[in-house]
């Protein structure tokens, strides 16, 4: 059985969109090299403050890697805050990835790691099959979900580049 790792990042545009891009563990080195090549001369893939030309190149490059992604989206209801949205989308994404047999979920570390751990422990149980870890942004593969999460809610034009690789998590 092939194990895989989901790299997770979010976009806060028109709600919260939490994206996990799944990379088979046997392809981690190959995909890291492809991401570095795609990002060159920059050090990482990141959609903010990029030209449209760069964005198109990133989107085409990521879509052409033969990977899959899952996106859990949610807009705030009256009285809800970003943490409420994150709890819900993280729960749904984590449960989806676990059902899909993903072995590890790598989330970009931020000031919410402790709260995220509590949410995932509640969602997945004390001894989950899906291991979750928090890595800093120096991991180039965290650029993959940044690209997809940026494009997915932005517009039909940008979404069209990655739509074929994305499963919308309900």
Structure description:
This protein has 170 residues and is α/β, with parallel strands linked by helices. The chain has one domain: Nucleotidyltransferase, domain 5, CATH 3.30.420.10. The protein is 43% helix and 22% strand. The chain has 6 helices and 6 strands. The protein has a 6-stranded mixed sheet with strand order 5-4-1-2-3-6, with helices on both faces. Strand 4, helix 4 and strand 5 form a beta-alpha-beta unit. Helix 1 runs antiparallel to helix 2, helix 3 packs across helix 4 and helix 5 crosses helix 6.
Indicate the percent of residues in helices: 40-55%
CATH level-four homologous superfamily name: Ribonuclease H-like superfamily/Ribonuclease H
Share of residues in strands: 15-25%
CATH fold type = Nucleotidyltransferase, domain 5
- Side-by-side strand order of the widest sheet: 5-4-1-2-3-6
Average residue-wise pLDDT: 93
Radius of gyration: 15 Å
First and last CA, distance:
26 Å
Number of helices: 6
Number of strands: 6
Shape estimate: globular
- The first-level CATH class name: Alpha Beta
Question: How many domain regions?
Answer: 1
Order of helices and strands: EEHHEHEHEHHE
């Amino acid at each position: 059985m092939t194990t895989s790792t989901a790299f997770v990042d979010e976009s806060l545009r028109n709600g919260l969109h939490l994206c996990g891009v799944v990379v088979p563990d046997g392809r981690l080195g190959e995909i890291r090299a492809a991401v570095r090549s795609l990002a060159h001369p920059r050090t990482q893939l990141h959609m903010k403050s990029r030209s449209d030309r760069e964005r198109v190149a990133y989107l085409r490059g990521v879509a052409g890697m033969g990977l899959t992604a899952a996106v859990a989206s949610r807009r705030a209801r009256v009285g809800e805050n970003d943490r409420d949205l994150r709890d819900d989308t993280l729960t749904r994404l984590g449960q989806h990835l676990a059902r899909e047999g993903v072995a590890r979920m790598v989330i970009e570390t931020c000031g919410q790691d402790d709260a995220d751990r509590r949410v995932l422990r509640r969602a997945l149980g004390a001894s989950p099959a899906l291991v979750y870890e928090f890595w800093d942004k120096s991991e180039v593969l965290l650029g993959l979900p940044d690209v997809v999460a940026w494009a997915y809610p932005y517009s039909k034009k940008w979404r069209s580049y990655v739509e074929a690789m994305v499963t919308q998590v309900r």
